[in-house]
Amino acid sequence: MSRAPKTIVFVTHGIAEAVFLSPEVIVMSSRPGHVAARFTIDLPARRDLSLLGTPRFATLAQQIREVALAHSTEADA
User: Which of 61, 50, 53 is nearest to 17 (CA)?
Assistant: First the structure.
């Protein structure tokens, strides 16, 4: 049996959830939606909850939050 690589698209509004679960986070803009930014999540592939309190996790989440807020509309708030 051969194993082909798989891609999973996970849609969430939870920034911490996205950083914790993903190797890459793509931030979409509000209407009309387009890719606002891509972030490579350079955290260990095997993650546990202790990662949530690390400076690198906080930095990534903050960077993503700033881009998401810059590309949102008041209607989304």
Answer: 61
Count the domains in the chain: 1
Q: For residue 27, give the nearest of 14, 8, 43, 42 by alpha carbon.
A: 14
pLDDT for the residue 16: 96
* ∠ Cα 11 3 38 (to 5°): 30
Domain assignment of residue 27, given as a range: 15-76
- Mean pLDDT, the chain cut into blocks of 10 residues (77 residues total): 81 94 93 92 94 96 95 62
